[in-house]
Amino acid sequence: MTDDPNTWFEKTVAQLNDPSNQRVWSVIVSLFGDMGQDPADRIGGSTLTQIISPIGIKPEAIRVALHRLRKDGWIDSARSGRNSVHFLTASGRAQSAQAATRIYDRKPDIPDKWHVLLAEDGAGQQTLDEVLLTDTHVAIGRHCALGHGELPPHCDDLLAIDARDFTVPDWLKRRVFPTDLVSACATLLSDLEHLGPVPQTLTPQQIATVRTLIVHRWRRVVLRHLDLPLSFHPTDWPGEACRDRVFAVLDCLPKPNLPALRD
Question: How far is CA 248 from CA 53, 189, 199, 214, in A?
């Protein structure tokens, strides 16, 4: 039997919330990335508070986080009557769109072309550090990175090795899927599996709150690793099961239209 929608909402927020590791600006990034990527999208200050205050974030903390995000050029704000509305800047939309390709990918294509990059100290290490800022490479040692696709440009001071045929030792699996990442993914999967059936009578604000919590926690898992072949996965990696569960729940929580969320 499905809980009363308000009871289900309160229990679900408590189940999914992680106040011990809660960066307010990051929660707001998740919210805008999920519901505010269109250039015309605007989210009012009161609406923002209604969505994220149930997870224990106070209005003062929201104001501080908005100030930081404006300073970083990620969002902008404007007056609308007596209220303020907030929206992604062009840069914020670009960053959100780039992340969204991985966050919302239900069946990622696993690349079949891989390479290993090796560097010495000095200029080579600086080049490698710059390569690691991209989302196509992961560090597997202080002077070594694993990447997919074509070799990055301007890497003449790195040793590049085509790695289409390779073995993957356990230490490397644990390096690219560290214990804390495995734990975060397993905990999210467990939390989602313990949710009851989603009521059909949740308010748009309640749907937005739960979506924000799920997307936020999934984002913090999926953006921390590359989409790697199964041969790279440690035996305790629950990523594929977690991905399936994330979208199964999100499908029951269709994204609310912003007009339904307005003050």
Answer: 25, 11, 14, 11
Distance CA 190, CA 178 (A): 19
Q: In which residue are the tokens 């999934």 written?
A: 218
Q: Strand 114-118 relative to strand 144-148: parallel, antiparallel, unpaired?
A: antiparallel
Q: What is the pTM of this model?
A: 0.89
Q: Concatenated DSSP letters for 21-42?
A: G--HHHHHHHHHHHH--STT--
Closest CA to 35 of 25, 47, 20, 17: 47
pLDDT 10s digits, 122-138: 778 888 988 888 878 88
Pair 181, 223: CB distance under 8 Å: no
Contact 146, 158 (CB under 8 A): no
Q: Which domains does the chain have, with CATH numbers?
A: 5-107+177-261 (1.10.10.10), 114-163 (3.30.70)
Parallel, antiparallel or unpaired: strands 75-80 and 83-88: antiparallel
Q: Which residue has the tokens 């999100």?
A: 250
